[in-house]
Design goal:
The protein has about 220 residues and is of the alpha/beta class. Helices cover about 50% and strands about 15% of the residues.
Length: about 220
């Protein structure tokens, strides 16, 4: 059973998502919260697999709540998905840097929404290659200050290559083709790199690849 915590300051939004999730046999909404502070208060007691959280809320916004969740070792199994009305805006990038597994636009189709919840619960990447490329485009126009050497010395040569390709928007299958290895080996390289860099998911791995200087927007 996938345990979900809904966080949004608009009751109608929460009730709409809840009605959809409650129809699924493998998903349970364990709690609702109206802001990030209330979300944090519920986490220890309810321990959800997935937190669906709005970015813009009073008291504590979704970005700060995501940052605190990502920083708490006791919540390592909690996957945060941010909700937004606005697509790939600045707040979304801040949320990804804070540790979100991905994001969803609130007008998403119901079947895509349910699929995304299941993907997040598995701990898999919630960023499709097209979305990853939008993330890259953001760095092309406004690259953040590089934090060079952030644990990269611990990566093997193959792991560095795999991470660089992931940061350019390639899937595991595409990475495998480029490096002439099996998809399973490509996935292993990515997973080991995530562990070494303490990245919670592929989204954060892509952000770290750019912020560390491993790759640049115009090359690797």
């Amino acid at each position: 059973m996938i345990r979900v915590l809904l966080v949004d300051d608009q009751p109608l939004i929460r009730s709409g998502f809840r009605a959809l999730l409650d129809l699924e046999d493998d998903i349970e909404v364990v709690a609702e919260a109206a802001d990030g502070q209330e979300c944090l208060a519920l986490l220890g007691e309810r321990l959800p697999d997935v937190v669906l959280i709005d970015i813009r809320m009073p008291v504590m916004d979704g970005i700060e709540a995501t940052r605190r969740i990502a920083a708490d070792p006791a919540l390592a199994g909690v996957h945060v998905v941010v909700l937004t009305n606005y697509g790939m805006d600045e707040y979304v990038f801040d949320a990804l840097r804070a540790g979100a597994a991905g994001f969803l636009v609130k007008d998403i189709l119901p079947e895509d929404f349910l699929h995304a919840v299941r993907v997040a619960a598995r701990g898999d990447a919630l960023l499709a290659p097209a979305i990853t490329r939008k993330l890259i485009d953001r760095y092309v126009t406004q690259p953040p200050p590089a934090r060079v050497g952030r644990g990269l010395e611990g990566l093997t040569g193959r792991e560095r290559e795999a991470v660089a390709l992931a940061a350019h928007g390639l899937s595991n299958d595409e990475i495998a083709g480029r490096l002439v290895i099996s998809p399973a080996t490509a996935k292993t390289h990515i997973n080991r790199a995530m562990a070494k860099l303490h990245a919670r998911d592929r989204a954060q791995l892509v952000v770290l690849a750019y912020e560390s200087g491993l790759v640049t927007p115009r090359g690797s």
